[in-house]
Design brief:
mainly alpha, single chain, 5 strands
């Protein structure tokens, strides 16, 4: 998390604007989905845009702009600064007066760099702070950059669907010096950082921009645009999962679909889903997309969050893809094994055992995976096959409960850390207790699990 987001997080907690658990949930969501902390707060529905805006002003020390500067109505006829550097610095120019530019900035605000860029183009700069969603919408308006689907429902919620459509849908245009021939295969919607589009012929309908399409979708869902649900999000700095956060919240519903199927999931039309299904589908696709990208800093957290969504068809397709990669004799096999281990996919244990021989990197990854899932660490590879024959029909919790009774302290500690993330109580167990007390607590824990498994089999909820 950048320094500005950390300051916003601290302010929300110190001033008791939100519970600390809610702020941690927003920070963890930011780590998974990217963007600003203010966007994560809006997506969780825990603050309004006005409330977020006021806290951004307090943290940055920058004023809030006049309404006409931020609502799309005060956009100049031509962009006064180039698109690329303003995108990198996360600001947008919305007009000049007496050689002074009005610049709307999202956090983190690189104030000195922004002022230097304005000076290079002959302007003084007046900086204001805006939520990230306003920055993205204004960049659509000023530079023709399509608004990412993530921000459209937030904009519609903040301004109303019709006002958002009127003020932000159409990107700023200018006449083209060289009109495209009629047979051109170039896209008719603005591309990222491509600059303004040529105006259409007189009387011709405007091509639909991505924002138009997304607002149309969100408008259809506006009556059921948020759902009450519990969310559990892991702390990105906690490898054990111990500090996961579970909160009740209102969650905005809007799916984000891959247009070309590049996410490796079946394409489903919005009308085929309920609002809750749209939300689950969108979240699963986003998590799998980040989990596929080795360079994504939120990849590990995405894999951990997917543990809670293993039953979703999108997650199942991703797991099947990883299992095939783990079994293949390729350099990527070790990475696929590590991903399956991070997701705690117990059904992949036979794949891990099979990879204990052969390629050295895959074998090391397979041993790490087996230790992660079972907390056991056999000395000889053939012991894993014997163990699996005896335990393949038992749930993972039973393996970990067995490991709580091992003589080795490190084994007990690992099993304990894994098992406590799956349970509502530790029943007084601690790895360092005397054996008699440990065993008594382990038996209580095991009895609770047996009762829970039995109740689940009967279709009864347990508390």
């Amino acid at each position: 998390m950048n320094g500005m987001s950390a300051r916003l997080q601290a302010l929300l907690i110190e001033q008791r604007i939100l519970p600390a658990a809610t702020v941690r949930a927003a920070a963890a969501r930011q780590s998974v989905y990217g963007g600003g902390l203010d966007t994560a707060l809006l997506e969780l529905g825990v603050l309004t845009e006005t409330q977020v805006w006021a806290r951004l002003a307090a943290v940055t020390g920058l004023p809030v702009p006049a309404p006409h500067l931020a609502d799309g109505t005060g956009v100049p006829d031509a962009a006064l600064l180039p698109a690329e550097p303003t995108a990198k610095m996360r600001f947008v120019p919305v007009g000049a007066r007496d050689q002074r530019l009005n610049l709307l900035c999202a956090e983190p605000v690189a104030a000195e760099d922004i002022k230097s860029l304005a000076a290079e183009h002959g302007f003084d700069a007046k900086l204001y702070v805006v939520p990230e969603l306003r920055l993205m919408a204004l960049r659509q308006r000023v530079y023709g950059e399509p608004l990412p689907q993530r921000y459209a429902p937030l904009l519609a919620q903040a301004m109303g669907v019709e006002r958002a459509r009127k003020n932000f849908v159409s990107p700023r245009r200018k006449k083209s010096a060289a009109p495209q021939p009629a047979h051109s295969a170039l896209p008719t919607v603005p591309m990222m950082l491509s600059g303004p589009n040529a105006a259409p012929p007189e009387g011709a309908p405007e091509p639909a921009t991505p924002l138009t399409q997304v607002i149309d979708q969100s408008g259809a869902l506006m009556d059921e645009s948020s759902l009450e649900m519990e969310m559990e999000v892991g702390d990105p700095n906690d490898l054990t999962g111990e500090r996961s956060v579970r909160i009740a919240t209102q969650v905005q519903v809007l799916a984000s679909y891959a247009a070309d199927g590049s996410d490796g999931v079946p394409q489903v039309e919005p009308q085929d889903m309920t609002p809750a299904e749209l939300m689950a589908y969108s979240a699963a696709v986003a998590l799998c997309r980040r989990a596929r990208d080795p360079s994504d800093t939120g990849r590990s957290l995405a894999l951990r969050v997917l543990r809670l969504r293993m039953g979703h068809p999108v997650a199942q397709a991703f797991v099947a893809e990883l299992r095939a990669g783990a079994a293949a004799e390729t350099p990527e096999a070790a990475g696929a094994i590590d991903s399956l281990a991070e997701m705690r996919d117990e059904a992949s244990v036979p794949v891990f055992i099979a990879r204990l021989t052969g390629d050295a990197a895959a074998a090391r990854a397979a041993r790490r995976a087996l230790v992660s899932l079972t907390a056991l660490n056999f000395e000889f590879d053939d012991q894993w096959g014997t163990w699996w024959e005896q335990n393949s029909r038992r749930p993972r919790a039973a393996w970990l409960l067995d490991a709580l009774g091992e003589k080795d302290l490190a084994t007990r500690e690992l099993a304990f850390e894994e098992l406590r993330t799956l349970s509502e109580s530790t029943f007084g167990y601690a790895p360092g207790l005397p054996k008699r007390k440990r065993e008594a607590a382990r038996r209580r824990w095991a009895a609770w699990w047996e009762e829970k498994e039995g109740a689940m089999a009967r279709g009864v909820e347990t508390s």
